[in-house]
Amino acid sequence: MVLSIYVGKRTNSRGKVELSLRFRHGKIDRQAATNLWIHPGWIGQEEYVSSRGRLARRYVLKLPEDYGGGGLTPADTREFRAAAESLQRMMAYIEDAFCIARRRVTGADWLAETIAKFHADELPRLEMERTDVLGLIDTYMEHTSGVDSSESREDAYRLMRRSLARFELYRRLKSPHFRLFAGRMDEGMLRAIERFMRREHLIVKRNPTVAQGPGLDGRTRPKGQNTVNDRMKLLKAVMSWAVKTRRISVNPFDSFVRCRNVYGTPVYLTLEERRKVERHDFSDNPRMALQRDIFVFQCCVGCRVSDLMELTVSNIINGELNYVAKKTRDGHPVTIKVPLNRTARDILERYADPDRRTLFPEVYSRMGYNRIIKDILKCAGITRKVVVIDPLTRQSVCRHIYEVASSHMARRTFIGNIYKKFKDQGLVSELSGHSPGSNAFARYREIDTDMKREMVDSID
Predict the structure, then answer these.
(1) 45 φ, ψ (degrees, to nearest 5)
(2) Largest distance between two CA atoms of the chain
(3) Exposed/middle/buried for residue 19 (C-beta within 10 Å: 0-12, 13-18, 19+)
């Protein structure tokens, strides 16, 4: 069997010509239009030797770079490749259909009917290719977000979506018709998105229109590689879900290798520093005193700030704090039980109110809580210098501990001090909610000078 390409004489409104196919096998000779349109400059001829040993010429599709490629845009190249790939799939489809028919004599309309069936079978795949990424993220959040989803999770996906929306607008500055389709994403597109995220703050500054529109405004700060990695990880979760739910056929992350996250040794307060914060007089600033007590309470129970904000009096049972961590609630929910020490009990008694459901009297924002923690430590004189990894440069830098403080430092303070005293990851994990063998927990296992001394003294 032989399939040959022919070119129509008419052009459409965009100056493109329609391809047709001629099918020959024995006495069967059929020709039909393909409904595939392509720029006439991308069609050439080549010489070949026929089955009868004669020199002949035939039409072939020329890749833009082989044909001269002058003035081609990336959109033109993608369009050409899409048409060429579609033509190859069509020719394979026709050959398979003929073989399935056991090479019986076909009717006059067989080729045209087979091409029509090919296009009908292609529609689901084309719809997958044309799945809008931004719409896919919205659908993913709608299907996976429950009433108890954490605010931090919603914020993380919202920021990732905003970056992708800005990326799409940025690409449209050069290619006005560009759209980010999930089914057409590949490793190259993912690399382009990753590069954009690293330079997003600079691009927005040079091209303000990229950040104009619903959901696109807001401050854009420089992002380190860890932040970019985390956002790409969220996009990967969306794509994996889309494949499982058959919204797209291929996950572009299958061939994409992300950079590894880099973390320094966790920085936390010593028990002496925590007690110094407890004893500091904030009587002239009742709001700061309240936030200080909340922070110290968190240092005593080790929960994440997303869980801290939802704690109520019903979470206190027989002198223990009982809660299910929001981070693992949808995966393997486990009730974490943390006995309250004297400091935690005193703080709860200080703010006890039978008419209030929440543990503490004020509702605070996560970012506001982080800012005031820095002020609290600075006022309390916690100014020890520590070495941390700069998130932008990934280089070691020296900072005052209050400068790098946040709500998560309370969790690190809880874990770090308990592990330092008991050196048992299993027991500490039960209090912190880390899974056994957790990579995250491994970063807390800092062997400090005292532990080194104990180890050396043990073999004296």
Answers:
(1) -125, 150
(2) 102
(3) buried
Candidates 12, 14, 22, 18; CA nearest to 35 is 18
Q: Is the pTM of this model over 0.85?
A: no
CA gyration radius, the chain = 32
Q: Taking Cα atoms as reference points, which of 392, 153, 108, 432 lies closest to residue 268?
A: 432
Residue appearing with tokens 């062997």: 447
> What is the rounded average pLDDT of the residues 89-97?
85
What distance in Å separates the CA atoms of residue 437 and residue 427, rounded to the nearest whole number? 12
In SS3 terms, 10-28 reads as EECCCCCEEEEEEEEECCE
Distance in angstroms (rounded) separating the CA atoms of residues 218 and 146: 26
Selection from 392, 364, 50, 382 nearest residue 224 by Cα: 392
Distance CA 405, CA 221 (A): 19
Q: How far apart are CA 96 and CA 448, in angstroms?
A: 69
Residues 292-331: tens digit of each pLDDT: 999 999 999 999 888 888 888 999 999 999 988 876 655 5
Sheet holding 320-324, edge to edge: 316-317, 320-324, 335-339
Instruction: Give residue-wise pLDDT tens across range 344-368.
Output: 999 999 998 888 888 888 756 667 8
Q: What are the CB-based long-range contacts (under 8 Å, 24+) for 200-208?
A: 200/163, 200/166, 203/166, 203/170, 204/166, 207/170, 207/173
> What distances in angstroms separate CA 54 from CA 40, 46, 51, one per listed residue?
27, 14, 7
